[in-house]
Amino acid sequence: MASECERDGRGEKHRCCRRRNRERDEDGQFARQIEAGDVLAVFEAVDGPVVTTTDVSDVLGITTEAARQKLNRLVTEGELQRRKTGRTVVYWQVTPRDE
């Protein structure tokens, strides 16, 4: 997903370049559910070791509320950890050291 940005050619990962267009069916519903693996793949699409709800929302084409719910479910399941830094909550993948 880390392709060169068409806007500036510098290889930057702008929001416009990270967003996926989600396919819809004939009724306007999303054709595919977002799975845990899709959320975890966002870590590869963004710079740095942490993601935010906005990162997940931009990359997967979902609302920030849906992103928050999916991230928090992964925290509950032990796949991610989270920490509030100022007004932003950041999430990171659990490593053996974190357990």
Automatic annotation (TrEMBL):
Keywords: Transcription, Transcription regulation. Transmembrane segments: none annotated. Residues 1-23 are annotated as: Disordered. The keyword DNA damage does not apply. InterPro entries: FaeA, WH-like_DNA-bd_sf, WH_DNA-bd_sf. GO terms for biological process: regulation of DNA-templated transcription. Residues 12-21 have a biased composition (Basic residues). Residues 1-11 have a biased composition (Basic and acidic residues). This is FaeA-like protein. It comes from Natronobacterium gregoryi (strain ATCC 43098 / DSM 3393 / CCM 3738 / CIP 104747 / IAM 13177 / JCM 8860 / NBRC 102187 / NCIMB 2189 / SP2).
